Automatic annotation (TrEMBL):
Tagged with keyword Signal: yes
Gene3D superfamilies on file: Tgt2/MlaC
Pfam families, sorted: MlaC
Keywords linked to the UniProt accession: Signal
Name this protein carries in UniProt: Organic solvent tolerance ABC transporter substrate-binding protein
InterPro entries xrefs: MlaC/ttg2D, Tgt2/MlaC_sf
Leader peptide range in chain numbering: 1-21
PANTHER family tied to this protein: INTERMEMBRANE PHOSPHOLIPID TRANSPORT SYSTEM BINDING PROTEIN MLAC
Length: 200
């Protein structure tokens, strides 16, 4: 249940409009979190017949403050420079689909969890927003957002759950597959996973 809650909120903050990428790092995160809570709490959108509409709205908005290109590059680490331009484009698109579809259902499992914002750390063009998730059973979990400034807007490039980096976690998985089976095998697995978890 712990990871279900955390994963639900992991991408939840990114459900926003482009305007949410403006303001201080904490404002960017808070506005987006507030918006996703509004969406998943909407009684009309919760109706079964509105599921496609709700899911499509969530998917369309997810990329507003989520820098998939940066995340994809960091997740590939040293293997990124070995890829051609078309390969980088394809991988980024597959990575984006993986994240969008993986958490679409989990985002909707929101159950009145409380989000408490803590310290904001800004160092030049980089920032970190710390927060805590408090469940209805009074359990608490740390959820921190790492952002970087691009084009005058703060964009999220990593999320750290209880000290575990999302990007670092994917980097370990991707490196293991590429090292043992090759890059084509990774692409094949990502394609298969995208099909497996494709939203309705």
């Amino acid at each position: 249940m712990k990871w279900l809650i955390l994963q639900a909120l992991l991408l939840g903050f990114a459900i926003s409009t482009p305007a949410f990428a403006q303001g201080t790092p904490t404002e960017v995160v808070k506005k987006a979190v507030d918006e996703v809570i509004r969406i998943v709490s909407d009684k009309e959108l919760k109706k079964p017949q509105n599921e496609p509409k709700r899911r499509q709205g969530l998917k369309k908005a997810i990329g507003a403050v989520f820098d998939y290109g940066e995340m994809a590059q960091r997740s590939m680490a040293r293997h990124w420079k070995e890829r051609s331009a078309p390969e980088k484009k394809e991988f980024t698109e597959l990575f984006e689909t993986l994240l969008e579809n993986s958490y679409a259902g989990k985002i909707e499992s929101y159950n009145q969890e409380k989000v408490v914002y803590g310290k904001e750390i800004v160092e030049g063009e980089s920032a970190e927003v710390r927060s805590r998730i408090i469940t209805t059973k009074r359990d608490e979990y740390a959820l921190d957002y790492r952002l970087m400034k691009k084009g005058g807007k703060w964009m999220v490039y990593d999320v750290v759950i209880e000290g575990v980096s999302l990007v670092a976690n994917y980097r370990t998985q991707f490196n293991k597959i590429i090292t043992s089976e090759g890059y084509p095998a990774l692409v094949k697995k990502l394609r298969a996973k995208s099909e497996e978890i494709k939203t309705p």
